[in-house]
UniProtKB/TrEMBL annotation:
NADP(+) binds at residues 85, 133-137, 234, 257. This is Shikimate dehydrogenase (NADP(+)). The gene is aroE. Residues 14-96 form the Shikimate dehydrogenase substrate binding N-terminal domain. It catalyses: shikimate + NADP(+) = 3-dehydroshikimate + NADPH + H(+); shikimate + NAD(+) = 3-dehydroshikimate + NADH + H(+); L-quinate + NAD(+) = 3-dehydroquinate + NADH + H(+). It comes from Candidatus Enterococcus clewellii. Involved in the biosynthesis of the chorismate, which leads to the biosynthesis of aromatic amino acids. Catalyzes the reversible NADPH linked reduction of 3-dehydroshikimate (DHSA) to yield shikimate (SA). Signal peptide: none annotated.
Length: 289
């Protein structure tokens, strides 16, 4: 195999704990090699106690940047010199770009979601969507959808101890965009049915439907699903959740989270390199992961 490492090779890091299971190094390095970009992408498993020194190494080693996953997405925010508009609203980052020693934080999860909708020919700009969940993935989706021009977002979440904090966060996002955002208790099935009935997309942004409870679903009444309502589940393991199976049985477009995973990585790649990721080269890696 040809050795492509040179004295000019730049480094991109992935900081998280745990991280050895990630397919991101294979995806990003395949893209870098396909475009003959003299850089490598490596995973570094590190806890919160080493985050500050890891961030500083981006400057010290003149790295192109880095990806962040849990538990660093929020903790890294105050360590940045600048934040993208979406990152400010989300309050978390997953991508860092080194702009000549100035570190800029981005969140590409929402971008990945919106680009995957385009890939599936689902248009929600100027329309209403309903999303279940209000965690990190949901917030990133809500923010990017609002910034891109979605007219209204109905958010449903369990009424737990974080419910009021979620409400406050959504009010903040609403105040800084032109999108109408309202929060509801997921237990209120009548309100959920009413919102879904006039939505152009239903999204599950929770982990309900993953192992060990594969039979679980974020909604109980599948009669609210209709043939012209696309259903998107951010889960990609399993490839087809109970929610997606029920949606497909009703003749609707049912989409899992593989596209979001692909395009959030593509968005980060473009931020580091200024080039579009060769999607067709990396798609098989994700599909077979």
């Amino acid at each position: 195999m040809e050795n492509t490492i040179t004295g000019h090779t730049r480094l991109i890091g992935l900081f998280a704990e745990p991280i050895r299971h990630s397919v991101s190094p294979m995806i990003q390095n395949t893209a870098l090699q396909a475009l003959d970009i003299d850089a490598v992408y490596l995973a570094f498993e590190l806890g919160e106690d080493r985050l500050i020194s890891a961030i500083e190494s981006i400057r010290t080693l003149e790295m192109l940047g880095a990806n962040l996953s849990m538990p660093h997405k929020m903790a890294a925010v105050p360590l940045m010199d600048e934040l993208s508009e979406a990152a400010k609203l989300v309050g978390a980052i997953n991508t860092i770009v080194n702009d000549n020693g100035r570190l800029i934080g981005y969140t590409t999860d929402g971008t990945g979601f919106m680009r995957s909708l385009k890939d599936q020919e689902i248009d929600i700009i100027g329309k209403k969507m309903t999303i279940i969940g209000a965690g990190g993935a949901a917030t990133a989706i809500i923010v990017q959808a609002a910034l891109d021009g979605v007219k209204e977002i109905a958010v449903y979440n369990r009424k737990d101890e974080f419910f009021e904090k979620v409400k406050e966060k959504l009010r903040y996002i609403e105040a800084h965009t032109s999108c109408i955002i309202h929060l509801h208790d997921l237990a209120n099935s009548d309100e959920l049915a009413a919102d879904v009935s006039d939505s152009s997309l239903l999204v599950n942004a929770t982990g309900v439907g993953m192992k060990p409870n594969l039979a679980a679903s974020p909604i109980e009444d599948f009669s609210i699903l209709r043939a012209d309502l696309p259903v998107y589940d951010v889960i990609y393991t399993p490839r087809e959740t109970t929610l997606l199976k029920e949606a497909k049985a009703r003749g609707t477009k049912a989409v899992n989270g593989l596209g979001m995973l692909l395009y959030q990585g593509a968005a980060a790649f473009e931020l580091w390199t200024g080039k579009e990721m060769p999607i067709e080269k990396v798609k098989p890696i994700i599909e077979n992961s």
